[in-house]
Write a structure and sequence with these properties.
The chain is α+β, with helices and mostly antiparallel strands. It folds into five domains: about 170 residues, P-loop containing nucleotide triphosphate hydrolases (Rossmann fold, 3-Layer(aba) Sandwich), CATH 3.40.50; about 80 residues, Beta Barrel (Elongation Factor Tu (Ef-tu), domain 3), CATH 2.40.30.10; about 70 residues, Elongation Factor G (Translational Gtpase), domain 3 (Alpha-Beta Plaits), CATH 3.30.70.870; about 120 residues, 2-Layer Sandwich (Alpha-Beta Plaits), CATH 3.30.70.240; about 110 residues, 2-Layer Sandwich (Alpha-Beta Plaits). Helix content is about 25%, strand content about 30%. It is built from 13 helices and 31 strands. Strand 18 and strand 19 form a beta hairpin. The protein is globular and about 110 Å long.
Length: about 600
């Protein structure tokens, strides 16, 4: 029996999950009564949002062929899921919406597939829509792939039209599994995903590359040097189906029985011998957006730690590090690939692990080169890079050192690709250049649509850029970005002073050109939420010793002259002067405590 391993790649909402449903239906993998919309989207969160978050494998039988399909996410924040799927396959179905045409993420995932040397099957979906223009979109695909228009299949996944032709193309065009040459005869399998089952421990999703794996055999994780006994092996249909063994080239699952999630890593090799040659895993994903996660109740800190450890096993792009905040107490600094990724992590923690969370404002990771001989005396040694001991990697503004000790600050930049209508070019260029973006090129996909490329600081696009892009292009704009590395910039720590004392919990790292604007927003917000005291409270935004914005909370004024009944005005003035001196003395001795409510109100600033 032949085996074909393939995945479906596309931009968001181009019909990947619907095509997967039709394939499952037409290969009789599930009965019609078992089918539901988005069959492979197992999480409630995926169904509610209508997006795929996790890659999901399924084994189908088509004639004499065994087809292993992996359904992948389309959003740019989940591209690490796509990269892992591609490493487990030999081919990919590239799905393009016949009405929308090629979008930014279509190009991004296609490049990843070509880098993995996969066979591409181009497919136009949604040809039944009134707005569909398959001839125009075919020309775009031919231009992008360099194929012929005869190579492009035209289908309607919703109606099930043309799905059999796609399955046949998978059999005909995609090569059988590649088997790497090994100097040893041991069984080897690559872990491309893993989950924690509350009853059976860690379950690893694997692609077997050499030999066979079966229940009862002794196996080893080569990276973490952990031996274990295989409890069960099987395949996805799409639920777990136990099998006698997993053979060379097959995709399936292995129940390890391990309870410690840290012993299993995505990208590790499972082998029958500890001396086996490890398989090339995945490049370690570097988180790009960082935020503090804190339990709303301090007693829930151990529960949050356990929940994050379980989630990090299933999510290779999530990084966790303990931290403390003056206003919120103990929590964790979490690294993600984008705001949607952070939002999904928050919802999964709240739903699956019953955590009640507070999340701080997202920031990126900066590289700070220090000008002192002993950097560990200025920042924590855990923040210093091993290859550059004078450079610290900082995502929390509270760790940012004094400007006197800084030689250079570097921030992450990304290559930004935007697909939009020709009439929106001016709007998009203005939007990006307002955020310190550098224009790199313009390429027309057809007479009415074009691809714009920019280089832009990551911090400038992580918060609200996508929303602004959609609203300024009437919903037609789409974007994708790839990391470019770090570049030096005029970045400073913006501190908020309350009564002259710095409030570390509110400090942020900003570009000097934006300091006045950001400082003004924070000061105005604090003025609204800070409770009045018996004395005046100055709220200042400062860079070092320079004040860039200020607001003042006026003092509560008690009417000390209320009981007087006429007489000379000097009696009244005497009492008011006495009150003024008292307020001055209170201001010198007084202290402003930043409450959790005030801190949260500033975080939610527009």
């Amino acid at each position: 029996m032949g085996i074909r391993n393939f995945c479906i790649i596309a931009h968001i909402d181009h019909g990947k999950s619907t095509l997967s449903d039709r394939m499952i239906e037409q290969t009789n993998t599930l009965q019609k009564r078992e089918m539901k919309a988005q069959t492979l989207d197992m999480m409630d969160l995926e169904r509610e949002r209508g997006i795929t978050i996790k890659l999901t494998p399924v084994r189908m039988r088509f004639g004499e062929m065994e087809l292993n399909l992996i359904d992948t996410p389309g959003h740019t924040d989940f591209r690490y899921e796509v990269s892992r799927s591609l490493a487990a396959c030999e081919g990919a179905v590239l799905l393009v919406d016949a009405s929308q045409g090629i979008q930014a993420q279509t190009i991004a995932v296609l490049m990843m597939a070509l880098e993995n040397h996969l066979t591409i099957i181009p497919v136009l979906n949604k040809i039944d829509l009134p707005a569909a223009d398959p001839d125009r979109v075919s020309e775009e695909v031919v231009k992008l792939l360099g194929c012929t228009s005869e190579d492009i299949l035209r289908i309607s996944a919703k109606e099930g039209k043309g799905v059999q032709e796609v399955l046949q193309a998978v059999v005909d065009r995609i090569p059988p599994p590649r088997v790497p040459v090994s100097s040893h005869a041991e069984a080897r399998a690559l872990i491309f995903d893993a989950i924690v089952d509350p009853y059976r421990g860690v379950v690893a999703y694997v692609r077997v590359l050499n030999g066979r794996l079966f229940a009862g055999m002794q196996a080893h994780f080569l990276q973490t040097v952990t031996p274990f006994t295989v409890q069960e092996v099987g395949f996805f249909a799409p639920k777990y189906v136990a099998d006698d063994a997993l053979m060379e080239g097959q995709i399936g699952y292995i129940v390890t029985g391990l309870k410690d999630v840290r012993q299993v890593r995505v990208g590790d090799t499972i082998a029958s011998s500890q001396d086996a040659e490890p398989l090339p895993g995945y490049t370690q994903v570097q988180p790009m957006v960082f935020a503090g996660l804190y339990p709303s109740d301090a007693d829930q800190y151990p529960d949050l730690r356990e929940a994050l450890e379980k989630l990090s096993l299933n999510d290779a792009a999530l990084s966790i590090e303990p931290e403390r905040n003056a206003a919120l107490g103990n929590g964790f600094r979490c690294g993600c690939l984008g705001l949607l990724h952070l939002d999904i992590i928050q919802e999964r923690l709240e739903r699956e692990h019953n955590c009640d969370l507070i999340i701080t404002a997202p920031s990126v990771l900066y590289e700070v080169q220090l000008s002192v001989r002993q950097p560990a005396s200025i920042v924590r040694s855990s923040l210093l890079k091993t290859d550059e001991p004078d450079t610290a990697r900082i995502s929390n503004p509270a760790d940012f050192p004094d400007a006197a000790f800084i030689k250079e600050v570097r921030e992450p930049w990304v290559a930004l690709e935007i697909v939009c209508r020709a009439e929106d070019i001016g709007t998009v260029m203005t939007l990006v250049q307002e955020r310190r973006g550098i224009y790199k090129g313009l390429q027309y996909l057809d007479a009415d649509r074009c691809l714009l490329t920019f280089e832009v600081p990551l911090q400038a696009i992580i918060l609200d850029f996508f929303d602004k892009l959609k609203s300024s292009t009437a919903g037609y704009g789409s974007m994708s970005y790839e990391p470019l590395g770090y570049r030096a910039g005029q970045l400073v720590k913006l501190q908020i002073l309350l009564l002259g004392e710095p409030a570390d919990a509110l400090s942020t790292i900003v570009h000097t050109s934006e300091a006045h604007q950001v400082g003004g927003i924070v000061c105005k917000k604090l003025k609204e939420v800070l409770p009045k005291q018996q004395f005046q409270i100055p709220i200042q935004a400062a860079i070092g010793g320079k004040i860039v914005a200020r607001e003042t909370v006026s003092a509560l004024r008690k009417d000390v002259t209320g009981y007087l009944y006429g007489g000379d005005v000097t009696r009244k003035n005497k009492l008011l002067d006495k009150q003024k001196k008292g307020k001055k003395r209170m201001k010198q001795m007084g202290k402003v405590t930043l409450s959790q409510d005030a801190f949260l109100a500033v975080l939610k600033r527009e």
